[in-house]
Amino acid sequence: MHGLSELQFQDLVSSFLGPYYIALALMNGLAALYLWRSGQTKAWFNLPGSIGGKRVAITNVVVWLLVAMVFAVLAAIAGSGNTSIASLPEWLREAINNSTGPVVYSVGSSAVLIILYLFRGFFVRPAIAWAIWNLMWLFLGLSMTDPDFYDIVAKPDNVPIVMLVFLLAFFTWLATYRAVINDERIANGEPPLEKLDDEKILVWPDLVYTELICMIALTAFLIFWAIALPAPLEEAASSVKTPNPSKAPWYFLGLQEMLVYYDPWMAGVVLPSMIVAGLMAIPYLDFNKKGNGYYTIKERQFSYIVFQFGFLEMWITLIVLGTLLRGPNWNFFGPYEHWDAHKVEALNNVNLSEYVWQRGLNMSLPGALSFSDMPWIPLPAWLTAFLNPFLQFFSLLFGRELPGTLLVLGYFIALPPVMALTVFRGFYQRMGFIRFMIMANLLLFMASLPIKMVLRWVFQLKYLIAIPEFFFNF
Amino acid sequence: MAEKKKMSVAEMLAAARKADGGDGASSAEPAEAPPAEAAAEPTQAKSPEPKSGNPAPAKAADGGRMSVAEMLAAARGGGGGAAAAKPAEKKPAPKPAAEKAKPVAAKKQAEASPSEPRDTASILAAAKKSSKAGPTSKAEAAAKEKADPVPKAKPQIVVPPMPAKPAYAKGKAAAKPKEPADETRRGFLNMGFWLLTAVGALWSLATLKFMFPNVRREPPSKFKVGFPDAFPSGQVQTKFKAQFGVWVVNTEVNGHPEIFALKSVCTHLGCTPNWLEAEQKFKCPCHGSGFYKDGINFEGPAPRPLERYAIRVADDGQIEIDKSQTFQEEMGQWEEPSSFIPV
After folding, report:
1. At what angle do helices A433-459 and A253-261 cross, to 10 degrees?
2. How many domains, chain B?
3. Mutating which of B283, B306, B331, B334 best tests the A interface, going by the most A Cβ atoms within 10 A?
């Protein structure tokens, strides 16, 4: 923390962590109480011995009670100022800092999401999910004692992002849990859970009252929040001074991350419009009538994967990356790293044309054609003046930038038919030509973002097609 | 029962218990029974709970449990229940109806428990199950109709035949078939596409208008920054950035030492980069674009080098920068003599 001595910071953190761990202990205690009272006690391990002829089992209630006790002990330790004990070891934080980067973060989060998806039957089990939930909170609590981590996470701007991570984890678990149950029931020939209890309720008063109560509760929460975490007031705006780092509103941080890899015209205008239009096109493209009114994954596997990829991977993880891990000069900082404005990162980026012509063929970049170089073309001067920009542009597009042009054209023109003939054969037959082409192109545009990111990381590739003369870069 | 007095929940439950328990007295005088009984009549066939050995068809009604909605409706009637019961009793219809219901009732007799006091929860649960609360869909209504062979006890209203429609009224009245929900949703999205188009068109028009502002207030584009010897070799002078948005740089470009003025606007998205003395580079805080001291882009997404302003040595020997003219490297304009001062 800036302007705080070590001791002051410890006081600050321990006054936060004490109640924090007590709340976690209460959460686990209440869970144990609920399981016990509702008769959901389950024996997990049997102890070897027996007392009075009865075998003693460790039940889930006992386990969560023990966890609650651990949190209570942590509350006592951290709340009394011994933050060095209740924190992650220094070497672990160093290791996390050194091993994280945009590549590790993005690839790692994709890998984690894929594992969670593939083994969802295991991870959605209430006991497993509850354990993960506890570990997430424990990780946050143990990391809070690091001044650099605390600095970022406890910033009033960033608190909602931390909340978003936990809320999303919970709701994704809830939906997946129900979907897994439904998929099992459907496989057994039973109706989904939602069909069992489809008693209709009245809009007035049931729904309207519920909404009113939610509205009031939410308003109260927002008022409390506004008082507890005041919105930051920054210096007066100036056209010549950009704050460093300069961040978009949190919901646009995914777009800002896209802008690192794309030309502003692409990432700022074309791709966002395609997101809106593509989302609106879904009802026209979707031919799967199943999954209406109940949670399911198996019956809508394609839609589910595409949506979760676009939402969790391309939107949420990028928001988290932009909020918590992007620091001054838009450099990547590890979670426990100090935001040093003078951190040097080598980010030399090279266009594809430079790769091919200069490094591959060892020659200089071909220039643009111009009518003034070709006096043998019998055209009036006013016409050549008018046509010259077009000639320049297309000679660059198909001359200097030919490799990138071929790649991009091949990607968007050659790939859809290939997809229709191979993996998406069934889709093509059911959707018809136009609908399939729209869907294929939307998919390809979505996939182009991670592809571009990987190319940037692996080859330091800046643009596939770079015609800055005409502000045309891809 | 008082005419306008509403029943409390406790009263309703008591009434339900009474009906459920099959109080003999209430069955003898159905008209005076709590509203529960009268309201129970339509449901009697579906959920009868007759007492064994009681042949009277009216008895079946006693055991009939009410749905919560019906109880509430009866209670809202505010004693109207009793009033409503009277016409129902007068009607001849209920009796045969009940008689028809009897075989059904008999079938269920085995499972139906004899009268004994019940707890509240079970009554409410039973009331909820026996018939749906709230509105029902058409399919549900049809299913209910099927399961319920008892004709409706409502009095038939005899409507006199309507006179034939006059010619001018015909043809117009073709009722539109109701659109299924799916269609309306698409209709909504359809409208969304049109809105998107309209917004796009409006936005384009507004952009066009933006190109021709009504008033242009700009500071003078020409200003003097001092004598050339105030800019030593290798220095990036940042003190004019806040006021004029310009860096004055004295460095070597392609082997020639030059003084030139760089525009402090990132060529990626227009943020203002910072000069980092320690790293000897311009770095943009928005998306991480980086530029060498001579303005050439080398890292991050910026597609082209920083732009130069026109610069010259004025007649009094001071350096004068003219912001009305810019020079772009990728267009080969850095070769032009007005884009730099050779040192």
Report:
1. 70
2. 2
3. B283
